Amino acid sequence: MLKISRLTVEHLAEGCVTDRPDPEVSFRLMSDRKNVTLKQARISVNGWSVKTDSQILIPYRGNKLQPFTEYQVRVEAEDNTGEKAQAETVFETGRMETPWKAEWITDGEYSFTDKKVSPVPMMFRKKFKCIRKVKEAKIYASALGIYELIVNGKKAGDRYFAPGFTSYRHEMQYQVYDVTDMLSGDNTLTAVVSGGWAVGSFVFTRVNRHDADRQAFLAELRITYEDGMQEVIGTDDSWEVTEDGPYRMADIYDGETYDASVDVEKIPWRKAAPEKLRFVPDLRADYSSPVRAHEEMHPVARTKLADGTLIYDFGQNFAGVIKLKIQGKKGQVITVRHAEILNKDGSLNVEFLRTAKATAAYTCRDGQQEYSPRFTYMGFRYASVSGISEENIEVSALALYSDIEKIGGFTCSDEMLNRLQKNIIWSSRSNFVEIPTDCPQRDERMGWTGDIAVFAPTACFNFDISRFIKKWLIDVRAEQLPTGGIPNTVPAQGYGFPATMPAMAVDWWGDACVLVPWAQYMAQGDIQVLKDMYPVMKKYVKACRFWAGFGVGKHRYIWNTPSVLHFGDWVAPDVPKMSQWQKRSKWTATASLYNTSRITAMTADILGEKEDAEYFKKLSDKVADAYVSVFTDGKGKMKEEFQTAYVLPLWFKMFPEDAQKKAAENLAQLAGRSDYCIGTGFPGTPYILFALADNGQEETAFKMLMNTKCPSWLYEVKSGATTIWERWDGLDENGECPISDDGTDMMISYNHYASGAVGAFLYERIAGIQAIEPGYRTFRIRPLAGGGITSARGSTDSPYGKIVSDWKIEEGIFSLDIEVPAGTKCAVTLPDGTTSEYGSGNWHLSCPYNQK
Ligand code: BGC
Fold first, then answer.
1. Residue 357: per-residue pLDDT
2. What is the DSSP string of 226-283?
3. Nearest to residue 377, comparing CAs of 227, 528, 253, 202?
């Protein structure tokens, strides 16, 4: 029987509220038959319907959608065997540009001028009566700052950090809350607004007031009564405001201070004032994957220091907040600090948090109470609790991250690799908090572009990041410089470029504007993301080409601006100093230009921009030729050898064919000379195993992957890592951090996903799952065994459904079970080289196998 197993609007199976004029519909098919494909489907919405043979992201093209309206979506599908299925869902429109019957309000008497801290949280309040019976009530709200909405004492919605982190002056989100069941006769709407990213201190320079001088709040409650009457209650000067509420301090880095002994009925409230913002926000219904609380984490151990401080170990590094159940006394202060590692004496190591205080301080009222911060988050495995004895407190924690659905999994016969995969997952969760961040703990948590540029393909195997990443790409597009460069952190929030880097194009980091949309397109078949980002890619690559074009002859294609303008082979462990990573920028930048121009050429081709496609293709050819001519002997040997210098041209296929193989041999020898330890920084790490394995050096690739000597992926695992480290040598054999004055200001985080980019190798080579067409409409399964691994299972949900590759080696037989989703085709290659094609369904294959 044919079934529609999933139907989504704007990537959401339910709860979609959108302001888009052309929401996109996708659906998956499931059948108990094999070899099923879609023959035709009809999608109907609002009297409009379209016949299609596509299942992915079909845009609505009917009459203009009306605001505040629920629309039915109906899909009728027929497969190639004549079976039929249908499904329905709904989506709702938001304001669709309806003018607000509300004004931005603030506390007109609050002047916030302090430096490097966040403002005192503001509380707004409105009391009102409903005399009639409420049929439906919805609140539309946003803020400059982070807000929480409380209706009659209960939080509306389960989102953290509303309105979300965007490039506020370009685009802001508002949220929609259905509060029908929360209203009664006498009502109080309360909103707490902290400084957040817009007003609070953010980026490591701790600058504040990026987007506004103080917090501002906007809300509109729209009530429809049973008798048909409508009422709108908007923010205006009839609201009250105070800074004397229980939230005494809230800051992304420093934490939160809460005083539960404050009685909000007894504090002074004054009239709120209308606020004139610095810019007119372009407000759109929340188009993100909002941050929510996911796993509840429980301590695996507790110790007590001599001074009575309790140390809780959660057994897992993550981003989130603690959750306390307390038996307290009025005025008693409980202080919680957070850290990723411990000092030798068992206390928290907070040194690497730099200026981030990462502290939650709670003043009790009498009796049983619960507390969990709402306006901050921390990256931690350990929490210290002082001011209370262990019998009077129960400590757990909530993992907070954007609502990205986990769609992938990788397990194999090697437990250390399984832990590595888990670490990749946890570092993704920890750093997908509103925007793709570098780390969740110290005074950064910024949208560093280079990190996601290299990590995006791995992220796409493990999670459906569609909404999350498309939201961020809107900001990338908005913040592109007129010259074509992309800030190194997006949203830049007053940073974007270090002092050494005038606002220009920066290789690998700026490459995010090319590599991230490309990864999303390949994983999800999302052509719109390419259309949206193409102008940005084009402008960016032209900027890169400009900066590379200063030499003479072939050097016109070598990007050789001073190394301080680049990050180079960032965190390469084979050289000790930051300046040495940067010195490798000649190689990394030139290879980046090759890669971005090649992908931009492919994109232009897909979008029918033939002339552009030719221009960028020619450019990439010239760059490849220059790289090989200038940096190598022409026969596959680098004049100056280091791993990344080989990896990039090998993986990107910049070498002429005969030199390619030789180069892989040279890379393998180089790796052998370092005992198969890793020597790559951000640019080389994602590709080194591919560069080796795809060019006849599988054995070396597996030796590097399975290596447990420092630096290597499994050294971290052996050292007890539960997330991916920023630096390969984050802890030495004695469990101590060896990082000293290397020019990075003690830059070591234990939760940085960048080098977890090796995850793509686990899926694409070991499990062997690889998209041929975007969205896996056709794909390959070609498992690669090695490194003593005797079984592996990789799975990922393509937009068509689940793909599985599950293999084992037993008694000289390699057997493979695969799952191919309806609507797709898979080319399977077994280790004996035989290739065959499979349509949808579950299949079993095998061949003889001699394990080396
Ligand atoms: C961040 C990195 C980032 C880098 C850029 C660091 O401080 O944590 O992940 O990409 O700076 O150089």
1. 98
2. TTS-EEEEE-STTSEEES-SSEEEEETTTEEEEETT--TTTS--EE-EE---SS---E
3. 253
Tokens linked to 144: 């400059």
Would you name the residues annotated as active-site residues? 444, 726
Sign of CA dihedral 655, 657, 659, 660: positive
C-alpha gyration radius of the chain:
28
Q: Report CA(753)–ligand 1 centroid distance (Å).
A: 11
Residue 163 in contact with residue 174, Cβ under 8 Å?
Answer: yes
Q: Do residues 185 and 133 touch, judged by C-beta distance below 8 A? A: no
| Residues flanking ligand 1, CB < 6 Å | 438-439, 444, 448, 450-451, 567, 570, 747, 752
> 438: CA distance to ligand 1 center in Å?
6
* Opening angle at CA 589, ends 588 and 595, nearest 5: 90
* 509 Cα nearest atom in ligand 1: 10
* DSSP letter (8 states) at residue 160: B
User: Cβ(452)–Cβ(143) under 8 Å?
Assistant: no
d(CA 128, CA 130): 7
Joined together, the tokens standing for residue 384 give 């210290």
Distance CA 9, CA 467 (A): 11
> Three-class SS of residue 286?
coil
Distance 759 CA to ligand 1 centre (A): 20
- Distance, CA of 423 to CA of 2 (rounded, Å): 38
Run of H or E including 718: helix 713-718
678: DSSP letter: -
pLDDT at res. 315 = 98
If you take atom 4 of ligand 1, which residue's CA is the nearest one? 448
- The pLDDT assigned to 850 comes to 85
- Centroid of ligand 1 to alpha carbon of 471 (angstroms): 21
Series of mean pLDDT values for 10-residue runs along the chain (852 residues): 97 97 98 98 97 97 97 98 98 97 98 96 97 96 98 98 98 98 97 98 94 98 97 98 98 98 97 97 97 98 97 98 98 98 95 96 98 98 98 98 98 98 98 98 97 98 98 98 96 86 91 98 98 98 96 96 94 94 97 98 98 98 98 97 98 96 98 98 98 98 98 97 95 87 86 98 98 98 98 98 98 97 98 97 96 64
Rounded to two decimals, the pTM is: 0.98
Whole-number pLDDT of residue 498: 79
Ligand 1 atom with least separation from CA of 204: 7
Report the pLDDT value the prediction gives residue 739, as an integer from 0 to 100.
81
**What single-letter DSSP state applies at residue 487?**
-
Give me the residue label for tokens 């029918």.
Answer: 608
**How far apart, in Å, are the Cα atoms of 375 and each of 21, 147, 256, 298, 447?**
33, 8, 7, 21, 19
pLDDT reported for residue 852: 60
